[in-house]
Amino acid sequence: MKGFHNRILMIDLTSRSFETRDIPDSLCEKHLGGKGLASHLLLRFNPPRVDPFDAENCLIFATGPVTGSAVWGSCRYGLFTKSPQTGLYAESYAGGRVPEAVDSAGYDAILIKGKCDRLHILIISPDRVSFRDAENLRGLDTYKTEDSVRMRFGNTDKGWKIGAVVIGPAGENRVRFSVVENDHWRSAGRTGTGAIMGSKGIKAILFMGDRKRTFHDSEGVRSLSKQLPREARDNPTAQGYKAMGTAGMVRIVNEIGAFPSQYWSRGTAKNWEKLSAEALHKRCQV
């Protein structure tokens, strides 16, 4: 199916094994996009009531049908699992250059289950998965970890795209709000995905490859990629995000009663003005 690799990668950390499975067009059509496919796989392969830190809880990386294209905002990967914070469905996303490397390995989704007996690095390419010891990286922060992994294993003369996702000491120690990092400062920051990666004994995953998605209408994609930035240039919402970031939503959602205060039990927060983008810009050098 155009826009898909029609492949998923299944990795079992306990047995250090992997297999590639072809997926039919009908599955891609029914569960559209990286989120749709990954959500389907999570429901299919996660046992009922599994503990988030159990070996059988799946950790799934997924990209979407326009990843690697010129479409504005399309360069993101999604990370899906069962949250150690809530015990419920978890999704988190990150951008940067690494999502293109994730996609270049040639899979629509990468499902990881099991646990390593010690810290490991996974190296994922279009045809294989390598397991490398990472005990010498234990305790390193995410910057040093990413640099070390790329230096040790990212040298290739094939002209492939290469990128790493990593965790720091918080993830290793299963801190329930720890994150997965890439490109130094890009974060899959929601729902505690770093803790799940750490619970499985994965310090880093290096993605590499040269696979590309094919599009049904390549000219239409190019046209859309030019149209979106032109529209955003004068769009007040886009300009607001550019100037204030996500924190700009604090004022808006409090005014309409949709702020997720006290785990969504209330719609507003006391003293929300101190959390707002305006306060952030006033107190900090942004």
Supply database-style keywords:
alpha+beta, 6-stranded mixed β-sheet
Task: Walk me through this protein's architecture.
The mean pLDDT is 93. The longest helix is centred in the last third of the chain and has 16 residues. This protein is an alpha+beta fold and 286 residues long. Strands 2-1-6-3-4-5 form a six-stranded mixed beta sheet. A hairpin with a 3-residue loop joins strand 10 and strand 11. It has ten helices and twelve strands.
What's the quick description here?
The protein is an alpha+beta fold and 286 residues long.
Strands ordered across the widest β-sheet = 2-1-6-3-4-5
The DSSP helix count reads 10
The parts where pLDDT drops under 50 for at least 5 residues are: none
Specify the helix fraction band: 25-40%
Q: Which structural class fits the helix and strand makeup?
A: alpha+beta
Kindly provide the radius of gyration, computed on alpha-carbon positions and rounded to a whole number of angstroms: 20 Å
The succession of helices and strands, N to C, reads EEHHEEEHEEEHEHEEHEHHHH
- Looking at the structure, what is the overall shape? globular
Strand percentage, roughly?
15-25%
Most strands sheet: 6 strands, mixed
Q: How confident overall, as mean pLDDT?
A: 93
Topology, number of strands: 12
Distance between the termini: 43 Å
